[in-house]
Design goal:
By secondary structure, the chain is an all-beta fold. The protein is built from no helices and 11 strands. It has strands at residues 3-7, 10-12, 18-25, 34-39, 46-51, 58-60, 68-73, 78-83, 92-98, 107-108, 112-116. A hairpin with a 6-residue loop joins β5 (46-51) and β6. The N and C termini lie far apart (39 Å).
Length: 118
């Protein structure tokens, strides 16, 4: 069964840190680029960060550059998003995504809630 399962969300104070994780199964993880998206209440889902299949190339939304770091462990079929210096506007549901390819459809996780509040 093709599946992505996020974990690690929670409540954190402004300026704090949090790491969210995503466990992949049912497909060849090491051959797929991966992405993290987020969706805040009343807003559209936005791309936060992406990482290549080998982990050697990463991209970030301007709003999180210098604060967030995406990484992956192909041996464990895991992708991570380390979030530092969190701001209230980072509050959202964070989704793990394996983008659509020429041969496979997109895969989405169920999301994990991150709330930044004092």
């Amino acid at each position: 069964q093709v599946q992505l399962v996020e974990s690690g969300g929670g409540l954190v104070q402004p300026g704090g840190s949090l790491r969210v994780s995503c466990a992949a199964s049912g497909f060849t993880f090491s051959s797929r680029g991966m992405r993290w998206y987020r969706q805040a209440p009343g807003k559209e889902r936005e791309l936060v960060a992406g990482i290549s299949s080998a982990g050697d190339t990463t991209t970030y939304a301007d709003s999180v550059k210098g604060r967030f770091t995406i990484s992956r462990d192909n041996g464990q079929n895991m992708v991570y998003l380390q979030m530092n210096n969190l701001k209230r506007e980072d509050t959202a549901v964070y989704y793990c995504n394996a983008p659509r390819t020429a041969f496979h459809g997109a895969v989405w996780g169920q999301g994990t809630q991150v709330t930044v509040s004092s």
